[in-house]
Amino acid sequence: MVRTLAVVAAVLGAASGINPYEPTAGWLYALEAAGRAPWPDCPNRFLSVDNACTQGSVALDSSTNSPVELIPAPQFGPSNSTFFIKLHCGKFLSYAGPCAELQVDAWPAPGINQAFRFAALAGGDGTAFGWSLEAVGRASCPEKFVNFPSTCGGRDNRRLSMSVGNTTQQRSAEEAPKLTASATPGLFRLQVLGAVTPMAKDPNSQGGCADPFAWRSVKANSTYMVCTGGGLELYTVANHGSLAPSTPLVSIGVALGGQPPEWAASGNRWAPENLEVDGHNFIFVADDANGPHRIGWVRSDADVAAGSWQSYSPSSLDLGQTRQGEIDAHVFRDTDGKVYLLWKTDDNSIGLKTTRLWAQQINVSASTVELLGSPRLILDSTGMWWVTSFINGGTLIEAPEVVKLNNWYYLFFAGGRFCQDSYSEGVARSKSIWGPYEKMQSPLLTTALVGASGSNKIIGPGHASFVQAPDNPGNLHIVYAASVGENCNRMAFVERLRINTATGWPYVDFA
What we know:
The protein is mainly β. The protein has strands at 3-4, 27-33, 46-48, 59-61, 68-72, 82-87, 92-95, 104-107, 115-120, 130-135, 143-147, 161-164, 188-195, 200-201, 213-217, 222-226, 233-237, 249-254, 270-277, 280-287, 294-300, 311-312, 326-333, 339-345, 356-364, 369-371, 376-380, 397-405, 408-415, 424-430, 438-439, 452-453, 456-469, 472-484, 490-499, 506-509.
């Protein structure tokens, strides 16, 4: 198992690992003006500059094609918060020293008027990983924070300028530029576009594994993983070892045995998930034998072993019998013992631009599964700039997974087009399993974040599952599928998942 990472880890320190959504040397970012009106109402939200960084070209645009790199500036402040912002043309984001000059532009070389201090700044909506940019060289000026207009529109409404912070002091109209200075700093986010030197990471699975679901079996005291496919490939950690980013996952055969009934007879089985109940194991899986995919279950009454899931539900579960079908089952057992089934209605399969995730309480006994209540909509695919779809102009999310930690329900989901660069993992959170859920406005995992295996880029990470250590629920691992190269040969990868203590949002730790 190869595992290296060529970035400057010391910026964050060993305790927090590597969280690239905090200002970190070694990564390329799109600098997002997060305090603007939400996407897609205001698409012009990313720092942009022309290829030559000509005078006056620094503005906000809808494209993330102007990456910036953070270069530590320890001569002007703490190295973990003070940086030069290097633009893709080789120049640096800059500001004027005289207090009366409020423009933000580019400059050929770094110095005191190109140094910025990043300070955590939570948005009114609980924004994760939000930052103010303080101009170190304007310490004596009231207007020392980079800001932007809150409204969208023409070129003048896309320019950056210096503004005051933590005070209502304003300059006169004669002294100020056309943009009126705000009384609060601008809220920015760092959207990761890639590592300057990509990390090396080999797959953890020794074979193919799309839609991996990994779980820790209490009965067997070992970790297992099951994957999309006809018989549902079954993996385990060798020698009952613990799951870790360097852990190999080895195949022990296929999970399914016995004779499938009509609803499960096609063999085109998607996204299996297992739930252990009193020594019995239930795999929930979708099959399309009778038209669109429907979700049913298969039970094993034996130890976890190849072919041991042999007792099939007599029919698929009635989750509304939607025209588009239901896929990507997830079973969540709450701390009070209640169990919930989550799924995606396959809305994009019938051309819908918005896709939806649903939940319903269920009862799982030693022998069967009972639906309780009715399906409830808990999340849709709107409002996230990075989420694409196979439907033109649409957005697609799928593969719901819930982790409960510190009284938060974290609802993870995949987004975009599987097996392509756009496929990613996102997260939302709520204090109730039913929602409402607040979406984190940065993706959790993207093609830009993951590295390469050998000479091939890792593509389309997503459809993740999460494993909590039995003796420490806060010790989390994310297990996701991705392709090595542009080939859709998906395999399973493992990383650590951590919770940022300041914001309460999760991030993938690439240390």
